[in-house]
Design brief:
It is built from seven helices and no strands. By secondary structure, the protein is mainly alpha-helical. The longest helix has 17 residues. The mean pLDDT is 89.
Length: 124
């Protein structure tokens, strides 16, 4: 049984994505990446991506991760913050922490494709 099936399939992914973005859009570290974006389009592609990552029936049809995220200038701390929000949103749905650990490991494997800038350093 795939991780996708273990978490409850499309119904759970459909519940997870809005909870994830509700958190992300209130985070000062991340919100600037989403201003002016079509959140419906992003949510659709995020659901596709998570479904594919979890071994579900859909394939991720968007451009490559690197091409999609390159101009967003995402840093390692921002990537980490996004994963923190995913963990919290998944936890609020009661997703098994062991499955969530595996999902986060899969996401970590995508770090190099998403992160394009070193961590921003505060001004001296």
């Amino acid at each position: 049984m795939s991780l996708y099936e273990q978490i409850g399939g499309a119904e759970t992914v459909a519940a997870l994505v809005p909870r994830l973005y509700a958190r992300v859009l209130t985070d000062h570290r991340l919100v600037s990446h989403f201003r002016g974006r079509d959140m419906g389009w992003l949510a659709y592609h995020q659901a596709q991506f998570l479904t594919a990552l979890l071994g579900g029936p859909h394939t991720y049809e968007a451009r490559g991760l690197r091409e999609t995220h390159l101009l967003l200038h995402i840093t390692d701390p921002e990537f980490d913050a996004f994963i923190e929000h995913l963990e919290a949103a998944a936890g609020s749905l009661g997703i098994d922490p062991r499955i969530l650990t595996v999902l986060c490991e899969h996401l970590q494997e995508q770090r190099e494709a998403v992160v394009s800038l070193p961590a921003r350093r505060p001004a001296d």
